[in-house]
Amino acid sequence: MVATCSRDKTIWIWERDEDQDFSCQAVCSGHTQDVKQVKWHPSENLLFSCSYDDSIKIWRHEESIDDWICTQTLTGHKSTVWQLDFSPCLEFLISCSQDQSLIVWRKEAASGEFKLFTRLENAHERAIYSVSWAKHGLIASVGADDMLRLLKFDQASSTLSVLFSVQAHDADINCVQWQPDGQKLATCSDDAKIKIWTFNQ
After folding, report:
1. DSSP state of 18
2. CATH superfamily for domain 78-201
């Protein structure tokens, strides 16, 4: 399946048939503003969406009605939620926002719901557009302040802390992504450049 999102406030879920063509299987309507990102959970049949309405929604396929339903709405940011990513252990997810904060959410074992675990205010000086959680545990974030930051999450102390910060581009940085092995990451920017960074532990 493929999920797409749009400024029309909807999420479309597409499924490939035997002829290798995609057809729309569901339209999820729940956000009240633009949907900025959709991301599948790595191991569960769940879809997460981030929106201009300051929220994250979690969608699950309900077999009894053969449709996708919203099972939880995460609220904690004060402005647009641009992106999210999952921790290597999948117990946590991190989200970034126009409000310059990063929030780590934790999945409760008993209920299966995600709850706000910790927040780092003013993680950047302007909007944070993208966040990526590496296999080795470090988190990369970028945004409208042209900065690339590496952060460490400490579960025991419930804290996020900045380990490294550099002006990575000459304009807004729209996306950051770790390589699967966590040794390199890529950033792309309004300055029309893509940069590859090597991480040395």
Report:
1. T
2. YVTN repeat-like/Quinoprotein amine dehydrogenase (2.130.10.10)
Comma-separated ranges of CATH 2.130.10.10 domains in the chain: 78-201
- Residues with Cβ within 8 Å of 130's Cβ and at least 6 positions away in sequence, in order, are 82, 83, 96, 141, 142, 143, 173, 174, 175, 176, 177
Q: What is the pLDDT of residue 158?
A: 95
Distances (CA, A) of 186 to 61, 85, 133, 144: 33, 15, 13, 16
- pLDDT at site 199: 81
3-state secondary structure of 44: coil
For the domain made up of 1-75, give the CATH fold.
Thrombin, subunit H (2.40.10)
Identify the pLDDT of residue 52: 98
pLDDT at 19: 83
What is the spatial distance between Cα 59 and Cα 39, in angstroms, rounded to a whole number?
Answer: 10
Q: Which residues of the chain are under the pLDDT cut of 70?
A: 201
